[in-house]
From TrEMBL:
Domain of life: Bacteria
Protein name: C-5 sterol desaturase
Single GO cellular component term: membrane
Pfam hit, one: FA_hydroxylase
Transmembrane regions: 20-38, 58-78, 98-118, 161-185
Amino acid sequence: MEALILEFASIFRRIVVVDFLRYFIPASGAFFVFWILFGKALRHRFIQKKKPESNRLWFEFTYSMSTIVIFALVGVGIHYTNKTGVFTIYRDVAQYGWTYLVATPILMLLIHDTYFYWTHRWMHHPKIYRHVHKIHHKSTNPSPWAAYSFHPLEAVVQAGVLPLILLLMPVHTFNLFLFLTYMILRNVLGHLGFELFPKGFIKNPWVNWNTSSTHHNMHHHHFHCNYGLYFTWWDKWMKTDHQLYEETFEEVTSRKREANTRQKLSA
């Protein structure tokens, strides 16, 4: 029994460190670059024009730490479940071929986007929202630190997509790494507070099905709209996209830097 406890503790410790770095490096990097280093130069691209209070940033970081612990526990569960053969996490590309290797991350993103949209809408049910999802929405003007700012029960729901994917399909270790990396990068982008995409992005049919920072920022600001994670498809199909999304995006990306040089963002 003691050996099992020590093994569990060792695996948990490693996964916690990896999950912490996977969150902290992108979130802190984005915060430093866009909020501190180039904050003044890019203030015209700050979506809501006003920074949140510093205590709100600490709130986001604190809840993100609890989320990392929960994600790590799920990771330990995946580790042991994989040993039983329930999941197929493989290393040899030849086992399923190159075509499957390339197609896998696309399928993973489609599954995750669908899972996120519908669980997200479920968490906006009044009875669920006030006890769980309300924590995330305390950030009405989010920062990169809000990427993992979830109530513990919501963290469990968010973590549930990975076991689901592994139940549905074999996943190469590289694609697992790629998926988890892309997930946090897009999460940080959605909570960045700055719009980085160029003017006209939203009117380009080749790319406008991707969610932008403005898209998710409007969800935090208006609550009952723009539920999608990676893509805008479900919001369009279910008519939950904010009617002023395109107008807001164009307004943000049309601002002139010179016209904003005298504006001062609240610290």
